[in-house]
Amino acid sequence: MLQPLAIVFYERVMPGSQLVNRLQDMHYRVLALANAARLAATVLREMPLLVIADLDAQSGVADAITKIRAEAATNHISIIAFAPDHRPELLPAAQAAGANLAVTESALTGHFAQMLDQALHVE
């Protein structure tokens, strides 16, 4: 059986590696990235089911989300963006860029399965 692919962009080991492990436990193939400049191109090349991106990592994450949404081939891909609890000011830019969900780190890690279901919900 083919496992769905998730791309996780992060620089901070925690929670990045924790999210990778949880996705793998849920039988996702996971591609981890540490360079926001390569995020949109990697999504276009790999065509994942899901992208999870850490907004606290480096500048350019909201721009990468915008590029993903601008491409006809990738604009349907579910995107969850998250920020540290002490940096909620990062969330509006991800929402404006087109993330399906923009949440705090504790919300994502505390309600991971529900957040995945919500991001992957097809209307």
What is this structure's SSE topology?
Layout: E1 5-9, H1 13-25, E2 29-33, H2 39-46, E3 50-54, H3 61-70, E4 78-83, H4 91-97, E5 101-104, H5 105-110, H6 112-120
Parallel strand pairs: 1-2, 1-3, 3-4, 4-5
Helix pairs in contact: 2-3, 3-4
Number of strands: 5
Average pLDDT works out at 92
Main sheet specs: 5 strands, parallel
Radius of gyration, in angstroms, nearest whole number = 13 Å
The strand order across the widest sheet is 2-1-3-4-5
The parts where pLDDT drops under 50 for at least 5 residues are none
What is the terminal separation in angstroms? 25 Å
Order of helices and strands: EHEHEHEHEHH
Beta-strand portion reads: 15-25%
Percent of residues in helices comes to 40-55%
Structural class: alpha/beta
Globally, the shape reads globular
Tally of helical runs = 6
Give the structure's gist in a few sentences:
The chain is of the alpha/beta class.
